[in-house]
Amino acid sequence: MKVTVKYFGLVAEAADKSEEVMEFNGELTASELKEQCLYGLSIADKDSVQIAVNQNLDDKTTLKDGDEVALLPPFAGG
Amino acid sequence: MKVTVKYFGLVAEAADKSEEVMEFNGELTASELKEQCLYGLSIADKDSVQIAVNQNLDDKTTLKDGDEVALLPPFAGG
Amino acid sequence: MDKKKPKKVFVQGAIPPEKIANSVANHQSKTNIGAHSIFLGQIRADEVDGKTVTAIDYTAYEEMAEKVFHEIREAAFAKFDITCAHIYHSLGKIKVGKLCLFVFTSSAHRKIAIAATNFFVEEIKAKVPVFGKEIFEDETHQWKVNK
Amino acid sequence: MDKKKPKKVFVQGAIPPEKIANSVANHQSKTNIGAHSIFLGQIRADEVDGKTVTAIDYTAYEEMAEKVFHEIREAAFAKFDITCAHIYHSLGKIKVGKLCLFVFTSSAHRKIAIAATNFFVEEIKAKVPVFGKEIFEDETHQWKVNK
User: Fold this and answer.
1) According to CATH, what is the number of the domain C10-143?
2) How many CB pairs under 8 A join C and D?
3) Which site among B4, B47, B71, B75 would you substitute to test the C interface, given the most C Cβ atoms closer than 10 Å to its Cβ?
4) Most buried among A42, C3, D27, D79, using CB within 10 Å?
């Protein structure tokens, strides 16, 4: 199963990447994927990072093949 | 004693004048003057006409020589 | 800063949209500002008994009105932490679709600017001796009353 | 009317003040409008630990952001009796004093326009995935967080 992970703002900076394709077997929720992606990164408040799956905020869902997952640090628009 | 009376908006229209100097003897309050000025004029709601004496809303005051009294219909600014 | 120089609020005729752009541009050097809140009043083609408003002819008790505008400014600066505030109101015959009121406040923070503009608009409507003759297409008229 | 055509909200670079004048001028033919309410966000020279912000570099999860902007518009039109609503948000490096957000709503009545603009601003701050890197004069930076 493949999902595309997008990194933004301070998460992209800490990870030093903006996008990657991850492959894995078995079931994985969005928040499990987040934990995995942020593991080892220097981010002060990981709880403040929200997850969007296919452009909807959602950390409960179990990921499906082809999903687009985004890791979103606190919003700063306006 | 002389006061200047200014008419605005629908009051000026009904009175067909914008300003006049009135002379009288004895004491007169602002609201008594208003009553006198509006007497006989075709104004539907005379209660809605406010009085300013020397540019302050005031209908209680007793007029003094040289006062400027304004008869102000409902405001419509903005 | 603006607080100290009382400026004339009334302008003859409609307020041109360019005035808004100029006012905003003039504030780009004030780097403590984070938010501008603007209110514009535009003449509406209201229908009354089948007749349509084509213009409003504004008159005012000008000396008192400028004094009240000044008092509203003072109250706004006392009440809100705004950096600047500008108000312009039209006099004369303003056609439908044209602007008759321009309120512009600025602050470090959005909520303050928005609240201050709201305050100005409500105070102006309630307290300033401005009168409006709504002129219909057949040249008859009625007198506008703020609600 | 505007309701039906979803337009792009993001613009590259700062929003020029002339855009405001043009937007207002474009609404002078809509004679059912009585009130415009405008909010502008301007980059502030905040001081943090003795260093001064010189610019904010905005990035966004663009596809999701445009979708959320659209949902906010839909919600605003359902909630408020507005005739039009326009939003523009900058992307890229916006210098201090320049405009990064332009919200513009119009209605027959002032209270509706003011409430709608307020709604847009709060919703945009809370819900749209936009990220801001505050750049200091020494080229260091910190990430902005909306409060």
Assistant:
1) 3.90.1170.40
2) 115
3) B75
4) D27
Which one-letter amino acid corresponds to residue D54? T
Fill in the DSSP letter of residue D2: G
For residue C58, the SS3 value is strand
Q: Which of B26, B56, B50, B21 is nearest to B38 (CA)?
A: B50
**CA distance to partner chain A, nearest, from residue D60 (Å):** 7
Report the complex ipTM: 0.94
**Domain ranges in chain D?**
10-143
pLDDT single digits (tens) C64-108 = 999 999 999 999 999 999 999 999 999 999 999 999 999 999 999
Residues of chain D in Cβ contact (below 8 Å) with chain C:
17-18, 20-22, 24-25, 27-45, 96-99, 106, 108, 110, 113-114, 117-118, 121
φ/ψ (deg, to 5) at C121: -60, -45
Domains of chain B are: 2-72 (3.10.20.30)
Contact A55 D67 (CB under 8 A): yes
pLDDT tens digits, D47-95? 999 999 999 999 999 999 999 999 999 999 999 999 999 999 999 999 9
User: Residue written as tokens 């932490």?
Assistant: C81
Please name the residue of chain C whose CA is at the shortest distance from the CA of residue D35.
C41
